[in-house]
Amino acid sequence: MTTTMRRLEGDIALVTGGGSGIGAASAIRLAQEGAVIAVVDVNVDNAEATASQIRDSGGTAASFAADVRDDKALDAIVADVVSQLGEISVVFTAAGVSGARLDSHDVTREDWYGVLDINLSGTFFTIRSALPSLLRRGGGSVVTCGSTSSFIATQGGLAPYRASKGGVKMLTQTLAVEYAPQGIRVNSVCPGAIRTNLSANTAAIVPTSGTVKNPSKPLSVPLGRYGEADEIASVVAFLASSDASYITGQAILVDGGVTAE
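Structure tokens predicted for SDR family NAD(P)-dependent oxidoreductase:
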């Protein structure tokens, strides 16, 4: 996707999970709109691949390796970003895993925390690490990555994943109210069925959680297809920009109509 909009000139954006999927697509879209990008991923090669793509297209980006389960590493990354690029004004917490479709009575402690520690705690600690920089900047925009599972439960299983995404929604609302007086907006983008490699990434990062196999055709999606990562990235860019200046505490569904049924 290309865009002629340059809504984010002068912004420094930190994107976790920026090495693949929605995170990579969003990092690229934010760069196209003028932001300088700090691409953060647990896989440094993937992070650098995204950053290189941005630089090859004329943008400015640097890559950083961090596991969002490690709050001290996140603090160090933010310090490096500020030192190298400047104070952060946009954060997108795209790092996440899916977990296995297990009956809840089969979920182990490792399965539970394997998902919660990344999707929910990782989201919180990423934002916590970035908040001092956002405050020094005088405000900014934080976008979390929720899901249709922040709102509904379809079929069985996935209790850890759905609990984590429900938590992300309430965390988003809590931080939005808390930091609105300081000029920091906090919103969540909530994808439905999106064509990414999330399942494979989950197996690599949280082996005990297994993988989730998506059907070849999303028959329950009213628009009749999977969404693409670029379609989420465009919403992230909107929420990050001044076009969304009066939007905070919201969870924006981008799901092809799934939750309208």
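The chain has a mean pLDDT of 91.
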